[in-house]
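Handoff note, outgoing to incoming analyst
You'll be picking up this chain. Sequence as last confirmed:
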Amino acid sequence: MGKTIRKSVTCDAMLGKLARWLRLSGYQTYYNSREDDTALLDMCIRSKTILLTRDRELERKARKLSLDVILIKSNGIENQLLQLVRNGFEIKKEPSEALCPICGSEVRETDEKEISSLPQKIRLVDKKIYICSKCGKIYWEGSHWKKIRERVEKIEYKLQNSRGKRSS
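Most recent structure output, in case you need it:
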């Protein structure tokens, strides 16, 4: 969906849902809803990540420190994702590069024999199963991936339509 500008980001406390989406797209995403502005700025300086924020004052402080920052203008996740795509981010439709949306660690494909807590209805269906290498959370390609694909396709459609309007 575009050229990826960076693989590491830091999200402020107002962007928890966006942080999960970015992790699902394979971005190393730092998010802690209890961090104050100083800690977030320090994180960006140390790790050289781009700061995503809804806070105009935090954006101002980041710019003063010459940090890469994007002020996220919308409350809605779809418009937030659209803004990021317009800024060079790539939002994925498939789980092949996804990181754990909870902790941000790598997930690996596994099989049902390895996971005793897998719900029986998932065992009966031929689906890919993934497990987080750090927190142990189990994922599979269920209806949530269908919804993710639909949302990304909607964003792609909006992006194409906005380009078409500009060129006419």
